[in-house]
Design goal:
The protein is an alpha+beta fold and about 325 residues long. It has twelve helices and eight strands. The longest helix is centred in the last third of the chain and has 18 residues. The strands form two sheets. It has a five-stranded antiparallel sheet, sandwiched between helices. Strands 6-7-8 form a three-stranded antiparallel sheet. α6 runs antiparallel to α7 and α7 packs parallel to α10.
Length: about 325
């Protein structure tokens, strides 16, 4: 059994399980064990787990399992049972570098987004298999307390992209302006959610999330209005694969003039994001307020990296990648 010395959700020091703050956000205040009664890693060929995975898994490299909480324990949801949580073990694809660190990477990146930058994110944490392997757990924000589901559509569906018509890489086809146009078209309070979307694109660039494709942004129906869903699937992908700047092939937008820095190096700088913000209808003062937060690495983010469940090598690499991104972002274009 793994020795826990900090909260496996918010990463606060001095806890041997989920802190009270984490339990309130992740488990509605209930006491839940971070220790699973079962193992997921290596069991993907077992019929019951394969069936559960296919009920919830979307295209991608990371397997997902529906889960519920029962008597303070986390378990796999039954076939006819509405899940309220999603479990994501380390991917079974052994070509991914340091694949067993991916759950810790996602938990850390999500916590940085929420705690340091105030980005609305899905509640999340880590739990541990019987063998001590990390498993990422996230609360489903599309399921209400009575277990009814809220209508939610990712932007591949909203925009109308699918594998049959657009090929197997359909979720990577497009640019972030496509999502912005869809937000403006479908969200009544579009200016508020446009700022949220703009900051999320900026965060993903700085924290090297090169898999922020059309299916990793969604609209959710709240009462009678669509809103941008909380952020999910945030992680520093450069730790595990050769990193791209963006998860969409078209980048920010084909309708902005690329900075000299971007033309010369192939990597955007702040000026490109300023032009993108203007392109999608944001006021310059609001764009600057958001971008100013990403000009340096906050001490709070460094502390979270240090308290994360990444190993020491990965902690150093995580910080190095983010610092390189900030230096790239901060370059002055002529």
């Amino acid at each position: 059994m793994i020795d826990i010395k900090r909260c496996p959700s918010r990463l606060d020091d001095g806890f041997s399980t989920y802190s009270p703050n984490a339990a309130r956000k992740l488990f509605d205040g209930h006491k839940v064990s971070h220790q699973l009664d079962f193992d997921l890693d290596g069991l993907h060929n077992k019929p019951e787990l394969t069936q559960a995975m296919h009920r919830i898994c979307v295209s991608g490299v990371q397997e997902k399992f529906p889960a519920v909480i029962e008597k303070g324990r986390i378990r796999i949801a039954k076939e006819d049972e509405q899940s309220t949580y999603i479990l994501k073990p380390a991917p079974w694809d052994e070509t991914l570098r340091d694949r067993k660190q991916i759950p810790a990477n996602e938990n850390l990146t999500m916590q940085i987004a929420a705690q340091v930058y105030g980005i609305l994110t899905a509640a999340n944490g880590l739990c541990f298999s019987k063998k001590g392997l990390m498993v990422y757990i996230t609360k489903r924000f599309d399921v209400l307390p009575d277990r009814s589901k809220m209508l939610m559509e990712d932007f591949a569906a909203v925009i109308g992209r699918n594998e049959m018509e657009d090929g197997k890489d359909f979720k990577y086809n497009g640019c972030y302006e496509d999502i912005a146009i869809a937000i403006r078209k479908n969200v009544s309070a579009w200016m508020v959610d446009m700022e949220r979307f703009f900051e999320l694109v900026t965060f993903n660039y700085i924290y090297a999330n090169g898999d922020d494709h059309l299916k990793n942004f969604s609209l959710i129906l709240q009462r009678e209005d669509y809103r941008l869903a909380p952020a999910y699937d945030l992680l520093n992908t450069s730790l595990h694969v050769r990193g791209d700047d963006f998860g969409l092939d078209g980048g920010l937008s084909p309708n902005i003039i690329n900075s000299d820095i971007d033309v010369q190096t192939g990597h955007p700088c702040r000026l490109d994001f300023e032009r993108f913000g203007e392109c999608i209808g944001l006021k310059k003062s609001r764009v600057d307020r958001i971008l100013d937060k990403y000009m340096q690495l906050p001490e709070a983010a460094i502390m979270l990296v240090g308290r994360s469940f990444l190993n020491d090598k990965m902690k150093r690499l995580y910080l190095r990648i983010v610092k390189e991104r900030i230096a790239r972002f901060s370059r002055i274009s002529e």
